[in-house]
Amino acid sequence: MEDNKKRGGDAPIACEVEAGKKYSWCTCGHSENQPFCDGGHKAAESTPNLRFEAQETGTVYLCTCKLTKNPPYCDGSHNN
Ligand code: FES
């Protein structure tokens, strides 16, 4: 992958989110706290986290493979 990114996993992780709350999604795959950022991109000199706000309260499936075209959500690209 480009930018020293790596797969943080091979399948999405179901996460409970709250409407209006902000979350920090790992874009680089180096976080030990998938699918969220733990700051690991700094040591890895990789891509920074993506901040996003949940639109609704409920379960979302967040990408861990970092191949999604619809970050932070899984779009099935992990099967490629
Ligand atoms: S886990 Fe990355 S696209 Fe599904």
TrEMBL record:
UniProt source species: Dokdonia pacifica
InterPro entries with a match to the protein in the record: CISD (IPR052950), FeS-contain_CDGSH-typ (IPR018967), MitoNEET_CISD (IPR042216)
Record bears the keyword Transport: no
Keyword Amino-acid biosynthesis listed: no
Iron-binding zinc finger CDGSH type domain mapped to chain residues: 10-47, 51-80
Protein name (Swiss-Prot/TrEMBL): Iron-binding zinc finger CDGSH type
SMART domains to which the protein is assigned, alphabetical: ZnF_CDGSH (SM00704)
Gene Ontology cellular component terms for the protein in this record: cytoplasm
GO molecular function annotation: 2 iron, 2 sulfur cluster binding; metal ion binding
Keyword tags: 2Fe-2S, Iron, Iron-sulfur, Metal-binding
Pfam families: zf-CDGSH
